[in-house]
What we know:
The complex is a heterotrimer.
Chain A: H1 6-24, H2 28-50, H3 70-101, H4 106-121
Helix pairs in contact in A: 1-2, 2-3
Chain B: H1 5-19, H2 26-54, E1 57-60, E2 71-74, H3 76-94, H4 96-103, H5 109-128, H6 132-151, H7 157-187, H8 192-202, H9 206-223, H10 232-238, H11 241-275, H12 278-299, H13 303-324, H14 327-358, H15 369-372, H16 374-388, H17 394-408, H18 412-438, H19 453-471, H20 474-487
Chain C: H1 2-8, H2 12-32, H3 36-61, H4 73-90, H5 102-105, H6 108-118, H7 124-132, H8 134-155, H9 165-176, H10 179-202, H11 210-228, H12 230-236, H13 239-262, H14 277-319
Amino acid sequence: MVLGLYNYWIVVLLMMIGFxxxxxxxxxxxxxxxxxxFQTSVFIFYISMGNVDSGSAPILAEGVSRYSNPLPHVLIxxxxxxxxxxxxxxxxxxxxxxxxxGSIEEDExxxxxxxxxxxxxx
Amino acid sequence: xxxxxxxxxxxxxxxxAPLCWFLDRSxxxxxxxxxxxxxxCLTSIAxxxxxxxxxxxxxQLGGWDAPWGIEYRIxxxxxxxxxIISTIGTIVLFAAQTSLQKELPKERHTLFYSLYLLSxxxxxxxxxxxxxxxxxxxxxxxxxxxxxxxxxGKDRRALWAAYQYLIMGTIGATFILIGIGLLYQMxxxxxxxxxxxxxxxxxxxxxxxxxxxxxxxxVCLKLALFPLHLWLPNAYAYAPSIVTAFLAATATKVxxxxxxxxxYTVFGIELSFSILPLQNLFIVLGLVGIFAASTAAIYKTNVxxxxxxxxxxQVGYMIIGYAINTSTGLMATLLHLFNHALMKSALFxxxxxxxxxxxxxxxxxxxxxxxxxxxxxxxxxxxxxSLIGVPLTVGFISKWYLxxxxxxxxxxxxxxxxxxxxxxxxxxxxxxxxxxxxxxxLPGREPVKxxxxxxxxxxxxxxxxxxxxxxxxRLSVQVAQAASQSLFGINP
Amino acid sequence: MIAIAxxxxxxxxxxxxxxGIYGLLSASFFVVLDAVxxxxxxxxxxxxxxxxxxxxxxxxxGRTEAPKRHKPLLALLVVLIxxxxxxxxxxxxxxxxxxxxxxxxxxxxxxxxxxxxEVGVPNIxxxxxxxxxxxxxxxxxxxxxxAGIGVLSLxxxxxxxxxxxxxxxxxEQMYKQHIVLRVISKALIPIILLFALxxxxxxxFGPGGGxxxxxxxxxxxxxxxxxFGLDNAKRVFSLSLFQLLAAIxxxxxxxxxxxxxxxxxxxxxxNVLADDPIAGQHLGILLIELGxxxxxxxxxxxxxxxxxxxxxxxxxxxxx
Lengths: 122, 492, 320
């Protein structure tokens, strides 16, 4: 019975690696990379559920009776586009942050912000 | 054309956004965007009337039947939300032209208006749709434009705030995506109505529980429910004033809507509240949120921060009403959605006016403004009173219903704590009032003039609405009641 | 494996490369799982565009990651809880590949059995994407458009008055060194563009469609820009042209929907576009795929040009 789910478990493992990068790492670009991995693993999860044993790609052809489920494919096409859009925007932000703060490390930015905050209080 | 209103609501601002690029002059684009917002406002009023008189509207996109195609489904709840978003969007936009002059370089104005319209589109899309995956797509439209809008803030901290929001928001959206995937796997459908029917068969499975958990956590990230609120204060504080006024009044409301929609319509009350311990969890989180955020607000020195934390606290009130899980409780939440949108947009817009005149919203800079900008400061005072929940303002109405609901459900301790939470609001509002009215103007600063009328008009429309709906509650209560009763399946 | 390597590696360049490989691997995984359309997209996006953008970004932000200081214990805890929740959720799932899972029984059969009669396109993914769930796709185009505007609002520079003409000659020389590359790519670029067009219009029958075509098209232009210099590329393809195209793509898509409104159908109902429903479906799908391709290609190019333009501006700033 366990074997029937192994595919999902691998996906979960990948997701968690990506998720871990996002929260544990301080480098802004690395966080975005983590986010990409996290999202891509979710995509794999969707595609896995659309798969059918001995099915073929969902393009109608003669002599094929079993197709994979096309709906998850459509959803993931959309989600991939959304993912790249987010990544692009995030990278643009990272570039601007680098220009404004001279760093893309989370804690250095926080220290600088703390300084500005203190200055404005005086 | 009347039958097509649901789609026009979404598609008009969507098409207007690229059209902005063809109009080059900032003022022209502003007028155009204002026109579009006004149109969507009229659309949402017409939709609300239609729903109230003849029940739920269903609109099939592409002409395909529901579980195969995507459908729009507008009931009282959606119509109310659409009305809130479009009205606030229009009124706030009115002041945009003036406010942007000081806060944004001229060549970015067109982009700003496109993003604003896209953000509006995203929110309309989330609210109007009856398809869970479509929710995800439009959620991303509204969030991406939200990140970009926040990053337009003058301060470099706006960039950092937008980045944090982007990371948190994307995690939230991905969680929602996982939740949708799990649901789809168990039922084979994405349509909300269809999901509700088919989930009834499998609602005891662990996969559905997991789906529920992921959707709720994802939505709560967007909602900024304590303790997932960390992105919110800075995002609100450093965004351009107009953006703050707009997002504060609408974005969290949309998330609350999603929460209500998922728990009540998709999963059903039985699963959400009887099988899982959601009720107590949310009441506790709501209460802790109210106290933690209000206390934080008392110690902040940036007035935008103060009101941002107060927003988190107000989310707490909404969550309590929702978690009580009675028709009255939900009604209190819906009323508070409406009322809080009115208060916060007025308050943040007034702060925008202060920003316009003195270029800062530090509390210390507010000294003496009570006399120099009397109309703006009066608006802040009335908005603040409404936030506290003083009678004759809208804040009182929603708190009143919330108390009724807690007492009805026999939760006395919660009622007392809610009242105590309001007292904390008195403290932070008083700090602003004290500085503005009872301290002498800052030495060495030129006398500050009153804000221009393009600010005052929208601010006072909102303030008067605060008072009007606080006295004449027929309209708002009627709609909120109808919406909550239809969610509970009670026929009035 | 790759994912773990990414966690450990500090050099961001290597990380980006590994991400590209990860994208390629997942693309091949998609092929194994019969999702050819998705694989195509993931290959061009995951391994192509996103890697490219990340590279452009790290040239501006620096390559190395600072060593970690804070304790990742809390993060690990959160991740473990989430992962545990997911594993818990999988326990009641239908098994991988089983045919009687609800996914295969409820909505999908209609797509598989009837889409030929209803839409008339052999590629089921295309017919679902562009017809049954066309509104999602419109949303997707809007997302990409939003990202384009967002990047523009963040990175766009004020119009330059060409003060850098002097050091342009130096740059010319740099590009001249890669003469072999330039000759080959001159021959390649038209082929890539042609291939993009093929993918664009062939989406009805095989894997492909507006989005993939847009990305490939963008890749060709970006290749040109990388080899011949951004300024040259901008001279050939002006940025404002692409802004216009991006807007037109989205408008084209949405107006197909509006036209069907005027023809008496619901929004995006292609049946009313022509006398014969199938012809209407074909026309509708063709037009919206064109819109998708248009917007995607132009937005990708806008994003890349802005990243690259920002970098050159930075370098010029540093030299002075």
